[in-house]
Amino acid sequence: MQDEFDVIDRYFAGFSQSDLVRLGPGDDCAILAPPSGDDVVVSTDTLAAGVHFPQDASGNIVVQRALGANLSDLAAMGANPMAVLSALTLPEVEDGFLQDLSDTFRRECDRWQVPLVGGNLCQGPLSITLTVIGTVPSGSALCRNGARVGDDLYVSGTLGDAAAGLQYLANPVNARDVPDNVAKALIDRYERPVPRLAVGQKLRPLASAAIDISDGFSSDLVHLCQASGVDATVELADLPVSEALSRLFPDERDQLALHGGDDYELCFTADPEHRDVIDGLSSSLGLTLTRVGSMGVAGGGAPLTFLRNGQITKAGSGGYRHFSRADDTGGTR
Predict the structure, then answer these.
(1) Residue 330 lies in a domain
(2) What's the pLDDT tens digit per position in 2-31?
(3) 214 is in an annotated binding site
(4) Please, which of 53, 155, 162, 167 could form a disulfide with 189 given CB 3.0 to 4.6 Å?
């Protein structure tokens, strides 16, 4: 029978390191050497079976959701990945699951150039906690509290796809009428989120504030407004949605785009003088950066105003919050 050290040696030894890692896995602590003149940014997230991924999720999905979510926090700060730590809790040692998890972890760490420098392994209900460490030139990190009155409001990519993918997995509606590739496009957005690291790094000299969209666009935008002390006006007709979402969930499209979680896109604000540069950045990255509204004076009430073709409208509420019955998604998010 394999114990924890056998598992570590078999599945987690020999990960690629970088020049910024002076001492990697195997000692009591890792030793990192950030570039001179850089600030260090750190974030951590726990993903638990039955909450953030299905109980029977493969190791591949567990890692991709966990690493994508954590690296998205670095993207929101405009940071360059430096290292990651992993704390994995397993109910039992299952070789097939662990091999899948290990293979994916190695591939994704190489893909995003973020070395695994240590961690922990214990027995219990399945969960994974990652701590990501990144760097930014001193004083240049993007934060939530910099939005100003008159700034444009942007989002990257498309909204609502991940929530739609999860909804489809739970209830494959209209499956007979939709090609497999349409549903797969939405499911992939849920199972394999892509952190917008390059976007965040390029936005450092342009954006006044930024946040990653994890709990839902509307919910995370409220956090940005509260941190910055401003309100936001959002034009629903401008929200970027994919053809797959429109085709599979035409009646729920706007609600999923506004309130669905797990997009891991970036929501950011910028002075209108940067519009042409941001348009050029969108073209060079091959990713839509869509202006969806503007920031205004805080009125003391609800921080978000929604328009449809210029007319004020109601848009419901949503977004994910742990321990909130009203936002319970029924097991996974």
Answers:
(1) no
(2) 888 899 999 999 999 999 999 999 999 999
(3) yes
(4) 162
Annotation-wise, does 320 bind a ligand?
A: yes
Domain that includes residue 229, residue range = 144-313
Indicate which CATH number applies to the domain containing 11.
3.30.1330.10
Q: How far apart are CA 289 and CA 281, in angstroms?
A: 8
Annotated binding residue at 44? yes
User: Is 119 a known ligand-binding residue?
Assistant: yes
DSSP H or E segment with residue 38: strand 38-48
- Confirm or deny that 212 is annotated as ligand binding: yes
For residue 276, say whether it is annotated as part of any ligand binding site.
Answer: no
- 262 labeled part of a ligand binding site: yes
Handedness of CA 158, 160, 163, 165 (dihedral sign): negative
**Alpha-helical regions (H) of 113-208:** 161-170, 180-191, 197-203
| Same domain? 160 vs 294 | yes
At 67-114, the pLDDT tens digits run: 999 999 999 999 999 999 999 999 999 999 999 999 999 999 999 999
Number of domains into which the chain is organized: 2
Q: Which of 32, 29, 52 is CA-nearest to residue 41?
A: 32
The residue to which tokens 């936005």 are assigned: 203
Any binding-site annotation on 38? no
Instruction: Say what the pTM is.
Output: 0.93
Please say which residue of 137, 158, 182 terminates a domain. 137
